[in-house]
Write a structure and sequence with these properties.
The structure is a single chain. This protein has 191 residues and is mostly helical. The chain is 75% helix and 0% strand. It contains ten helices and no strands. The longest helix is centred in the middle third of the chain and has 27 residues. It is elongated and about 60 Å long. The protein starts with 5 loop residues before the first helix and ends with a helix.
């Protein structure tokens, strides 16, 4: 395994502590101790504990947006594209379950500017996914029984709830779970 950079070690420690204890209950001293760095190192990379929280969000949503853009750009048929979007989203969420839990539980702590940036990225994800479904509904590849917006909200809602029930040591691998969720969504979209 590659050696983690100082910022990566700090973020990893913060994720573990914020997931276990919550943002408010975690001190900067606990983060630096868990990351084996000094407070100076933390403040060199992150101006505050709030900056660290935002980095957790930025990192997770950044990976998911990059995956989405790559999948859509591949130009595959609608069913394959939707399957790949859902599989990618479920796998990154399951593999980052602590980050996702922190993301869902603590996002209200973001200041107005960061919340606006987060919402803009989330909206772009939703709109890009919805456009794939709408196009397939328009050309008859998918049924229009359920509006594209509703289908996407259901798919994203299931994924957003993963941190409340998914356990990495549970009976299903992220890959198996992702495939099952994708098949469920696609079953509702088939003509």
């Amino acid at each position: 395994m590659a050696r983690r950079t100082t910022p990566e070690r700090i973020v990893d420690a913060a994720v573990r502590l914020f997931a276990a204890k919550g943002f408010d209950a975690t001190t900067v001293q606990e983060v630096v101790a868990a990351a084996s760095v000094t407070k100076g190192a933390l403040y060199h990379y992150f101006g505050s504990k709030d900056d660290l929280l935002f980095e957790i969000y930025r990192s997770l949503i950044g990976r998911q947006m990059a995956d989405l853009d790559r999948i859509v750009a591949a130009g595959e048929d609608a069913a394959t594209t939707v399957r790949r979007i859902i599989v990618s989203l479920v796998e990154t969420t399951a593999e980052s379950v602590d980050e996702t839990a922190v993301f869902v539980r603590e996002m209200h702590r973001l200041d107005a500017e960061r919340m606006a940036a987060f919402r803009a990225e989330r909206r772009r994800y939703h709109e890009t996914f919805r456009a794939v479904v709408e196009k397939a509904q328009a050309d008859g590849s998918f049924s229009s029984r359920v509006p594209a917006d509703t289908a996407v909200l259901i798919a994203l809602g299931v994924v957003n709830q993963l941190p409340t029930w998914y356990r990495p040591d549970g009976p299903k691998s992220p890959e198996r779970l992702a495939t099952e969720i994708a098949e469920f969504v696609l079953a509702g979209l088939r003509p």
